[in-house]
Amino acid sequence: MAAPTNTFKQALTQGKRQIGCWMSFAEPITAEIMGTAGFDWLVIDGEHAPNDIRSIRDQLMALANSASHPVVRIPVGETWLIKMVLDAGAQTILVPIVESAEQARELVRACRYPPEGVRGVGASASRATTYGTTSDYIQTADQEICLLVQVENRAGMAALDEILQVDGVDGVFIGPADLSTDMGFQGNSKAPEVREVIADALSRTKAAGKAPGILGTNEEATQTYLEMGAQFLAVGIDVMLLTQASRALAKEWKAK
After folding, report:
1. Any catalytic annotation for residue 48?
2. Is residue 1 part of a domain?
3. Which CATH number characterizes residue 131's domain?
4. Which residues contact 94 (CB under 8 A, 6 or more apart)?
5. Which residue from 4, 29, 74, 167 has the highest number of Cβ atoms inside 10 Å of its Cβ?
6. Tens of pLDDT along 35-93?
């Protein structure tokens, strides 16, 4: 039995737009709820949410019956951490703060088994192989792993063309908040100078045959990124959705 087909990677390869959402609660029950919403992909955020390998695993389990594809953002691009997340059953990894082609190549190697990579061969006792049920996992897993790298500062932007030439990088995700802050705009991703860089990066990524992605946290930004050509586009964050809806509800009824 082969590794499961990565439908998200397949969609990106086919040029299909994928609409997603961020998940920052770090809880399986909220992941399960988000999995019923109809998004194409959902991010389990290990960088800015209080996740560990167990909570990541539990959210992967919660999304197992959902049509929404789980994307795991790890806090840092370390080989040992990538190995753990892949063994937990993730097929798509999002790595923050990628600044060079060499770094991107090392991430590709971390996602692949030898001889092409350095991923540890121990998945037979893990969730990735359904605990040994997926008999041909090691022979077929590499082609189903999707690697997304975040380019989100001036160093990354300077190296973008080289990063885009790395075989095994499936998509480039632009981080507007980090990028704008690094450019001196303190999180103001709406600044014209920042928007110009974002538009250029998305265009260059698409032209290189990679999937361009980004997160919009309000309607204006999301629509702008859509028009810029973002292919995998996150349109919200679960925590923000709850805070906005609950505060609006309280305000409405306390005013009556």
Report:
1. yes
2. no
3. 3.20.20.60
4. 43, 71, 72, 73, 74, 148, 149, 150, 173
5. 74
6. 999 999 999 999 999 999 999 999 999 999 999 999 999 999 999 999 999 999 999 99
